[in-house]
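Dear colleagues,

For the upcoming journal club I promised to circulate an example of a predicted protein-ligand complex. I picked one with adenosine-5'-diphosphate because it came up in last month's discussion. The inputs are reproduced below in full, followed by the predicted structure.
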Amino acid sequence: MNKIAVYPGSFDPITNGHVDIIKRSQRIFDELIILIAYNPVKKTLFSVEERIGMIREVIKDCRNVRVDYYDGLVVEYVKREGASVILRGLRALSDFEHEFQLALINRRLNREIETVFLMTGYKWFYTSSTIIKEAASLGGSVKGLVPEIVNQKMQQKYHPNEVAL
Ligand code: ADP
């Protein structure tokens, strides 16, 4: 039987920390779905279409990985796709409490689904979409922290007049 995992998040935008988790998960699961999950609390920089476009570009050479969007409960999506695992990445201690809460509520909502955590690669311990957006918005270079396509899109968003034609 195929082991399908769903990796939900905002991915606003996808960073090298996310990519690290995606690549490593390929050795564990047969299929991975990166799920842009609607979060009513978060205001995003990139539209769903923009985030999907960047992720598609980043995963174009990855086998058995695809991207999707869902505006309902993640556990419902996981069940609908015949998956049994929610994949999440863990960074610094600050992630722990929130991830614990999420995993527990998701287990309460559906006991058949397990949340699996992968520890971040040490290089990406402090890499978050939020901090990257902050740095880029103030003109800081985020090269090496995000895939090149994301670096370019961020430049276009924040500094459209400086982008070389
Ligand atoms: P959310 O809005 O659900 O927190 P994110 O896009 O910020 O979505 O993150 C999605 C998942 O990826 C979360 O499990 C998060 O902990 C993980 N993640 C984010 N950045 C990193 C990183 N640098 N290394 C490992 N995991 C990460």
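Two points we might discuss: The chain is about 40% helix and 20% strand. The pocket of adenosine-5'-diphosphate is lined by residues 9-11, 15, 17-18, 21, 39, 88-89, 91, 95, 120, 124, 127-129 (CB under 6 Å).

See you all on Thursday,
B. R.
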